[in-house]
C-alpha cells in the first residue's frame, strides 16, 4: 500500500484539497485498495478545525467528494509511516524538515515538483482564489499519481 500525506500550514485549505483530489483520482482508477491518503499541518493554528468552506465549495463545484477531515499537526512519526510527504510551498518544506529532523529517504517534496513547472501553490486562506489553488493542486496530484504508478506500481 502506498501512503501519501499532504501537508500545508493549517491543514484546512490546500492539503485537504489535495487529499480529496488525490483520493478521487485513485478511486476513479479503481486503485483505492492500493493507497492510503491523508493530510496534516505544520502549525498548530487550526488543529481540530474542519475543511475550509472555500475548499468544500470548490470540491463540490467540480464534483469531488469532501469528507470530514479535522486538522492535525504533522509529527516526526509520520515520516516513518508515509511513503510520500508532500508540501504545498517552500515554507511547508522548511517546516516539515524541522519537524522530522532530516529526510534521508527523500520522501519530502513539493506537490508542483510533479508538474512541468514546479513552484509553490498559493494559500487561498490569504489569496481567496480557490480556483487557482484547485488548478495547481489538481495538476500536481495528476503528476504525483503518474509518478507513483510509474515508480512504485510497475
UniProtKB/TrEMBL annotation:
InterPro entries named in the record: LMW_PTPase, Ptyr_pPase, Ptyr_pPase_sf, Tyr_phospatase_low_mol_wt
Phylogenetic placement of the source organism: Bacteria, Bacillati, Bacillota, Clostridia, Lachnospirales
GO MF term list: protein tyrosine phosphatase activity
Annotated family: Belongs to the low molecular weight phosphotyrosine protein phosphatase family.
Broad class of enzyme this protein falls into: hydrolase
Transmembrane parts of this sequence: none
Protein name: protein-tyrosine-phosphatase
UniProt source species: Hominiventricola aquisgranensis
Keywords of the record: Hydrolase, Protein phosphatase
SUPFAM superfamilies referenced in this protein's UniProt entry, alphabetically: Phosphotyrosine protein phosphatases I (SSF52788)
Catalytic reaction list: O-phospho-L-tyrosyl-[protein] + H2O = L-tyrosyl-[protein] + phosphate
Stretches assigned to the Phosphotyrosine protein phosphatase I domain: 2-147
Pfam families named in the record: LMWPc
EC number: 3.1.3.48
Amino acid at each position: 500500500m502506498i501512503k501519501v500525506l499532504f501537508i500545508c500550514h493549517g491543514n484546512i485549505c490546500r492539503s485537504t484539497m489535495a487529499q480529496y483530489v488525490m483520493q478521487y483520482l485513485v478511486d476513479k482508477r479503481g486503485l483505492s485498495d492500493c493507497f492510503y491518503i491523508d493530510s496534516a499541518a505544520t502549525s498548530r493554528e487550526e488543529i481540530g478545525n474542519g475543511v475550509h468552506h472555500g475548499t468544500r465549495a470548490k470540491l463540490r463545484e467540480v464534483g469531488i467528494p469532501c469528507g470530514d477531515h479535522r486538522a492535525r499537526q504533522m509529527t516526526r512519526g509520520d515520516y516513518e509511516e508515509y511513503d510520500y510527504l508532500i508540501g504545498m510551498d517552500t515554507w511547508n518544506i522548511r517546516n516539515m524538515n524541522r519537524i522530522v529532523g532530516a529526510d534521508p529517504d527523500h520522501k519530502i517534496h513539493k506537490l508542483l515538483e510533479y508538474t512541468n513547472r514546479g513552484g509553490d501553490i498559493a494559500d487561498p486562506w490569504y489569496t481567496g482564489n480557490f480556483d487557482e489553488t484547485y488548478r495547481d493542486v489538481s495538476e500536481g496530484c495528476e503528476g504525483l499519481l503518474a509518478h507513483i504508478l510509474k515508480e512504485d506500481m510497475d
